[in-house]
Amino acid sequence: MSWVVQGLGRMMRDASVRARRGAIACAATLAIASAVSVPSAAAQPSTTAVVAPEIPREFRGVWVATVANIDWPSKPTLPVREQQQELLALLDRARELHLNAVVFQVRPSADALYKSAIEPWSEYLTGEQGRAPSPLWDPLEFAVREAHARGLELHAWFNPYRARNETAKSPDHRTHIARTRPDLVKSYGKFLWMDPGEPEVRKRTLDVVLDVVKRYDIDGVHIDDYFYPYPIAQTRGRGDLPFPDDSSYAAYRRRGGRLARDDWRRENVNTLVRELAEGIRAAKPWVKFGISPFGIWRPGSPAAVRGFDAYDKLYADARKWMHEGWGDYFSPQLYWPTYKDGQAYPVLLEWWAAQNRQRRHLWPGNFTSRAGARGSGAFAVGELLEQIRVTRSNPGSSGNVHFSMRSFSTNQAGMNDTLSDGPYREPALVPASPWMSAPPPPMPRVTLGRDRRGARTVDLATADGTRPWLWVVRMRTDDGWQVHVVPGDVRTWTPPFADEPKDMIVSTVNRIGEVRTP
Questions:
Q1: Do 66 and 149 belong to one domain?
Q2: What band does 497 get if pLDDT is binned at 50, 70 and 90?
Q3: Is there a single domain that holds both residue 140 and residue 97?
Q4: Could you read off the pLDDT of 283-295 as tens digits, one per residue?
């Protein structure tokens, strides 16, 4: 197969190309396979192979929280057009900052920010649970389409068990699980919680997630740290308010179960995580499954760590999930500074990396909203840069997820400028996932040309006519090499500079990050 560039250069080959599935390179870095030399008016075509920089790889994600309208929409009463404009602005900002993934909350409380036949419309979208937006639109469908048009991954973020948040204002809709199956829902403080011990609750969450996986072109499924609820302290020093699951535990014992209640609770969560992993992989093997557990598995792991015990209080055995490889990526919420005694970011990151026996992605979560903020827990923007540096220096981790989009929307304390001038100066691809499966990237077939004003254009096509997930264009000008990540549906691309490129390499990328270069 050849890559034809009409009248402006010759294709050269480099024998160092790595082979996987023929000409596919799926390692985190790519050996350069070929280049096109683009002569200026006075130059002659190059006849030697061109060595370009490797394609940068790093996950740069951001959480977009819809619960309590934290990030989007700013108000549930906004007209549809304004909600759409806000969402587009968030995606544009992510693209400008060279982020490459948006984790978009679509199920805050057994509700939906998309068109669902299972659960009612969320009050955070329309101001009243069960009320459809008018005019009717589907925010998840819109977000997926517009994210992909910007070369961003879109991960759908689900809360698996929460049925009502303490911030909720409208009554539960008649189709909400609290109304249709009140036997499955428990009151806990100001919350409603679907009981993880009820097999029908697990089935419902699995049905909800797989419904979205099958109907929407998402790139990932994401669940956060809310499994069993965070404990609520009782008054007068009487300890934590117990979660009211006596009936489901008694039913388990009647069925012959022998686990103690704490172990049974953990096994309930384990079963959901395993079944989600299996169900997503069976439905669409290129869709990532990500989990964002609390940043401390257990106090004393490692020895210097102190704090909340997610294993004992949330019944979340995230270490087991890593050992089993049930997730494709893990984003433990390392929400403390690098210098924090008992919860130091580097110490925790090193521990999580050591648990990653199956070599899945480790993309820690950062409390970015505290960078440059005021009040308790705030830290300088420079501390966020240090956390990114620590992440990059750890060979077991390959990116970060930022909480949350609001701080980027306001350019809090000049954070955006600091990132754009520093660690996020250049774009990066999401690291490849070689254990996953997807159609291989097609062979690029590129033609160089000019538009009506004489500006250089690149016509992007493939040998078989299929569309890649992304294009990667590496170009050399007088100022050196530049790497550009281009959405896969782009067919004619104009370089964002006036200088005539001297050399160019175009590669295709598929949904799991594999790269093909001729």
A1: yes
A2: confident
A3: yes
A4: 999 999 999 999 9
Find the Cα–Cα–Cα–Cα dihedral 334, 338, 340, 343, rounded to 10°. Answer: 40
**Residue from 450, 503, 508, 517 nearest 36 by CA:** 503
In angstroms, rounded to a whole number, what is the distance separating the alpha carbons of residues 314 and 194? Answer: 14
Q: Does pLDDT of 43 surpass 80? A: no
> Which CATH number goes with the domain that contains 159?
3.20.20.80
Cα gap 455→475, rounded to integer Å: 15
| 124 neighbors 69 (Cβ within 8 angstroms) | yes
Number of compact structural domains in the chain: 2
Reduced DSSP (H G I as helix, E B as strand, rest coil) percent helix, strand, coil of the chain, to 5: 30, 20, 50
At 331 the pLDDT is 98
Examine the domain organization and report whether 49 and 154 are in the same domain: no
Amino acid letter for position 99: L
The pTM for the full model equals 0.91
DSSP 157: E
Token representation of residue 161: 């068990």
pLDDT band at 9 (very low <50, low <70, confident <90, very high): very low
pLDDT digits (tens, 9 = 90+) for 157-191: 999 999 999 999 999 999 999 999 999 999 999 99
Cis peptide before 293 (omega within 30 of 0): no
Continuous segment of H or E residues that includes residue 281: helix 261-283
**Length reported for the chain:** 518
Sign of CA dihedral 160, 164, 167, 168: positive
DSSP-assigned letters across all residues of 450-481: E-TT--EEEEEEETTSPPPSEEEEEEEETTEE
User: Could you tell me the two tokens for 210?
Assistant: 């797989």
* Residues 192 and 281 occupy one common structural domain: yes
Residue 83: other Cβ atoms inside 10 A? 22
Instruction: Report whether 188 contacts 229 (CB < 8 A).
Output: yes
